[in-house]
Specification:
The chain has 338 residues and is α/β, with parallel strands linked by helices. It has one domain: Alpha-Beta Barrel (TIM Barrel), CATH 3.20.20. The protein contains nine helices and eleven strands. The relative contact order is 0.19. The structure holds iron/sulfur cluster (2 copies).
């Protein structure tokens, strides 16, 4: 089920600055035909669907909740200032997962925090502090706008105590203001650049997450980001794919090939390279008594990707039965780690 079709999504409303036009990043493809991505085990043409086993839980993502100060045109999780389909995760719930990692001997290196805008969650700084004090690397995805700036003092203290163990990855959808605001809405550029410069000036470990326009090449995009970072004196190497992460597009309603077991050899790829071989995400859906563990950051609502309440339950193979599996992960070659 696409995020926008989920019943919880009915409550989504737009913010003041919601972009008015179509997303500049819209996927150019035919509509997804009926019959694709239906059965978990076989594809529409009867081939065996590919699956990805969990090799190690290197990264555990915690979705802090869907509320966000922005309402971007193609936010995959449909965040907005009023959508609380995924409620705020609490520090107590986060600690339960950290405890489980420690108890069961997972070799987890990194805790990733995503939203919504994580800094809007009132329990967020406590969760970050808990994760850092347990020795995990922490990666925070943020738009670096006002919600983050309210926590400057605490962030500086964490940075002083933990240095590069804390990375903040700022979403800057494009290297131009016009395209960024076409996706993210009016007045979203200057505040994000300001936030990024504040992080850079204060010595934080930082990264930038961007996107490619249809037809825009990787070389061209990295050049554009490079010029921007130079102009604004931002310490990010635009040529480093781990520090300037450029993501492929997703659209669950557009046609894409299904991934079969034969695809690995044909594409020269391995299940080990796919995000869900080394990560899981915790979400707390509105109306549910406890958080749940889902296969990855991209598919928080689809029941077919809900793997249980604990990490132990979620230790099983994931069937690649979603258009995002094909377009974003296998064909787009995306990775979500710092
Ligand atoms: S800032 Fe991120 S979470 Fe918020 S609406 Fe935009 S894409 Fe979604
Ligand atoms: S979209 Fe999620 S479940 Fe599908 S292949 Fe990618 S990481 Fe795995």
């Amino acid at each position: 089920m696409a995020a926008q079709d989920h019943p919880l999504m009915a409550s989504r409303s737009k913010s003041r600055n919601t972009p008015q036009g179509p997303s500049p990043f819209a996927v150019e493809a035919e509509a997804l035909p009926e019959g694709k991505f239906t059965g978990p085990d076989v594809t529409a043409d009867g081939s065996q669907r590919a699956e990805v086993p969990l090799l190690e839980l290197e990264t555990l993502w915690l979705c802090t909740g869907t509320l966000c100060n922005l309402a971007c045109a193609t936010c995959y999780i449909e965040s907005s200032p009023t959508n609380d389909a995924l409620v705020y995760l609490t520090a107590e719930h986060a600690a339960r997962y950290f405890d489980e990692i420690e108890r069961d001997g997972w070799h987890t290196r990194e805790i990733g925090f995503t939203g919504g805008e994580p800094f809007m969650n009132p329990h967020f700084m406590a969760m970050v502090e808990d994760a850092l004090s347990r020795g995990f690397d922490v990666l925070v995805l943020s738009n670096a706008m006002k919600p983050m700036r309210r926590h400057e003092e605490k962030l500086l203290a964490l940075q002083k105590a933990h240095g590069a163990k804390l990375t903040i990855r700022v979403s800057l959808d494009h290297h131009t203001k016009a395209v960024h605001e076409g996706e993210r809405g009016a007045n979203s550029w200057d505040a994000a650049i300001d936030g990024l410069k504040w992080l850079s000036d204060n010595g934080f470990a930082i990264a930038v997450a961007g996107r490619l326009l249809p037809g825009e090449g990787m070389i061209e995009a990295r050049e554009g980001y490079g010029k921007l970072f130079e102009r604004e004196n931002i310490r990010v190497d635009a040529q480093d794919p781990a520090r300037c992460v450029l993501f492929p597009e997703m659209d669950a309603d557009k046609d894409v090939a299904e991934i079969t077991t034969a695809c690995w050899d044909i594409l020269g790829k391995s299940p080990e390279d796919i995000m869900c071989a080394t990560s899981r995400m915790v979400v707390h859906r509105k109306g549910e008594p406890t958080p749940r563990v889902v296969a990855c950051t991209l598919i928080p609502y689809d029941r077919g990707f809900d793997l249980g309440e604990t990490l132990a339950e979620a230790n099983r193979a994931v069937k690649l039965n979603h258009p995002h599996c094909a377009r974003f992960c296998v064909l787009g070659g995306a990775s979500c780690s710092a």
